[in-house]
Design a protein that fits this description.
- The chain is of the alpha/beta class and about 525 residues long.
- The protein folds into three domains: about 260 residues, Alkaline Phosphatase, subunit A (3-Layer(aba) Sandwich), CATH 3.40.720; about 110 residues, Alpha-Beta Plaits (2-Layer Sandwich), CATH 3.30.70.1250; about 130 residues, Cytidine Deaminase, domain 2, CATH 3.40.140.
- Strand 9, helix 8 and strand 10 form a beta-alpha-beta unit.
- Helix 9 runs parallel beside helix 11 and helix 10 packs antiparallel against helix 11.
- It binds tetrahydrodeoxyuridine (THU).
- The site of tetrahydrodeoxyuridine has 13 residues, from strand 15 and helix 15.
- Tetrahydrodeoxyuridine binds next to strand 15 and helix 15.
Length: about 525
């Protein structure tokens, strides 16, 4: 089975105000806490994964043994919009926010736009898309000028009547605007907004809207994954956000339900690489519309869907659930909010460690690259490296692996969890055989799984076992397993953790196998 990593972005699910939130007018905002007060809020599955274990989210109820690794990520970029948030998740830091134009676009931009398109402009203000055609449609009919407007977001929008200005000409005008709006004026998107109708019967916008996104200013992890010859699949608006850069396949969606359906389909598809999913409704339908109950209901729907997705995950899969910014639906405006984002990372190879609060979303990019074995340098650090698994957690993983013991002859169930130097954990159980001697011990199962995946550096192994799975005393590795471990592990630092009801007994491998024989003796 090929290695896959899924990153699902719950658009705008912030996890509390960042330390600099005051500079953005967002003091005290907390999207997740806000929606948790709604009677519609239900996140039983994400709570089991450990959403309440993420720093600052204990109001959700932390669980004792979360199933996922948990973290809270800060945003290094100066921004709180979708584009900058996703770029940082993909490894690109933006030192400046994308420009917005509450007073309209500067004269020199519009002069160049008029000169190059051969048409003048009307409006040039932040405006509602439906109001702007109502208020300027008639003037456009008379003058043939473009209706240029913006919003609170970093957008340059051009409305044009389809029968007055041919679609192709409008699209060409957008391409010209995209060329002009670079550098200091590099808006996130230029949007073609064609419409039809007349003053008497009213105007309506058509489905021929088209977005012209800004090229990411640097190489993202998407590019790195694609260059490595792996799949990089976009679900939803990811492809737009990266202007197609690094994407090998794009599946646009019509909102959350469709996005979850596509993600589920992809979880059943055999591919190697990265699947980047954006679920947009949280933000567009509920966050901006200040609809706390609607937001809570949408999260509950996602939570109900999640087990179906997890059930399709194989041994070589990882899932990261996170967000791109906040949009507290109960604060005093409809804008995004400058917040931390929560992160859950789940997979059978991923130790459910608490990774605390990290400084950048770019840890996601570093983790994607690390998981897939792709070269990619960015300011982020792989979450797989940062996770110091506690001895208790490693023993717990061994206990879980023990449940899968195949031991119909001895009825002695054994489980092991081997911690690799890169933070990954390989578990194993004993696998018996009717001919007895082909039996494999739990420790060697975990070791051979790791080595066969190219992993040969280890820090510790936890072992538990007992008749019928009842853990009485400690279970010490047999001599053959000690020798097998000695092949790869340093006797003076590799630790063997033997769990029992009383606690954990920890020994160095060298203590269990003194004066050992190894390759250096040959
Ligand atoms: N076993 C292990 O899994 N690990 C050891 O270190 C010693 C023994 C298993 C092998 C067999 O299935 C059962 O325990 C009884 O020997």
């Amino acid at each position: 089975m090929a290695k896959r990593i899924f990153v699902i972005v719950l658009d705008s699910l912030g996890a509390g105000a960042l330390p600099d939130a005051a500079e953005w007018g967002d003091t005290g905002t907390h999207t997740l806490r806000r929606i948790s007060a709604s009677p519609e809020f239900c996140i039983d599955n994400m709570r089991l994964l450990g959403l309440g274990n993420v720093d600052g989210q204990d109001f959700l109820g932390a669980v004792q043994c979360p199933l996922a690794a948990t973290a809270r990520l800060g945003e290094l970029s100066k921004g709180k919009d979708t584009t900058i948030g996703h770029w940082e998740l993909a490894g690109i830091i933006s030192p400046r926010p994308l420009p917005t134009y509450p007073e309209g676009f500067p004269q020199e931009i519009l002069d160049e736009f008029s000169a190059r398109t051969g048409r003048g402009w009307l409006c040039n203000k932040p405006y509602s898309g439906t109001e702007v055609i109502k208020d300027y449609g008639e003037e456009q009919r008379r003058t043939g000028k473009y209706i240029v407007y913006t919003s609170a977001d970093s957008v340059f929008q051009i409305a044009a009547h389809e029968e007055l200005i041919p679609l192709e000409e409008l699209y060409e005008a957008c391409r010209i605007a995209r060329e002009i709006l670079q550098g200091e004026h590099a808006v996130g998107r230029v949007i073609a907004r064609p419409y039809v109708g007349d003053a008497e019967n009213g105007y309506t916008r058509t489905a021929n809207r088209h977005d012209y996104s800004l090229m990411p200013p640097a190489r993202s992890v998407l590019d790195a994954v694609k260059e490595a010859g792996l799949a990089c699949i976009s679900v939803g608006k990811i492809n737009d956000i990266f202007a197609g850069s690094g994407v090998t396949e794009s599946i646009p969606t019509k909102g959350n339900a469709d996005g979850m359906r596509v993600a589920l389909e992809l979880s059943q598809r055999d591919f190697e690489g990265f699947c980047f999913v954006n679920l947009v409704d949280f933000d567009s339908q509920y966050g901006h519309r200040q609809d706390v109950d609607g937001y809570a209901r949408a999260i509950a729907e996602f939570d109900r869907w999640l087990p179906k997705f997890l059930a399709n995950m194989g041994e070589e899969d990882a899932l990261i659930i996170t967000a791109d910014h906040g949009c507290d639906p109960g604060d005093d405006d409809t804008d995004h909010t400058r917040e931390y984002v929560p992160l859950l990372m789940y997979g059978s190879r991923i130790a459910p460690v608490q990774l605390g609060t990290r400084k950048t979303f770019a840890d996601v990019a570093a983790t994607v690259a690390h998981w897939l074995g792709v070269d990619y340098d960015c300011v982020g650090t792989s979450l797989l490296k940062g996770g110091a698994v506690t001895d208790e957690q490693l023993v717990e993983m061994a206990r879980e692996a023990m449940q899968r013991s195949y031991s119909p002859y001895s009825h002695c169930k054994v489980g092991a969890a081997l911690l690799a130097a890169d933070g990954r954990v390989f578990t194993g159980c004993n696998v018996e055989n009717a001919a007895y001697s082909p039996t494999n011990c739990a420790e060697r199962t975990s070791l051979f799984k790791a080595v066969s995946e190219g992993v040969t550096q280890f820090e510790a192994i936890a072992v538990v076992g007992g008749r019928d799975g009842v853990i009485d005393g400690i279970f010490a590795p047999c001599g053959v397993c000690r020798q097998a471990l000695r092949e790869f592990c340093d006797p003076d630092s590799f630790r063997v953790l033997m769990g029992s009801r009383e606690g954990i007994e920890s020994r160095l491998l060298g203590e269990l196998l003194p004066l050992s024989f190894s390759g250096s003796d040959l």
